[in-house]
Amino acid sequence: MKQSVGKTVGSFDAKTHLAAYLERVERGETFVITRRGKPAAELRPVQSADSQRNAALAACAALRERLVQRGNVVDVAAWVREDRER
To answer: Which of 20, 41, 58, 59 is the most buried (most CB within 10 A)?
Structure first.
């Protein structure tokens, strides 16, 4: 599980000042909401489907580039054909 990165906010403060926190989240900030000092939730900006897809494609391209630099040949089409034959 990914470790949360953000400012810590108590649940009472988050409830009391939710509108202000939402404005800050819209500007890109992330908050970890705690209950009795323990992380309970994360308040963060929503990623659009386009940005999620673009991030996944960028990660795939970076992985492919690393493999090519190591001299490994990557044939994704062959992997897809192989998977379909199963």
So the answer is: 41
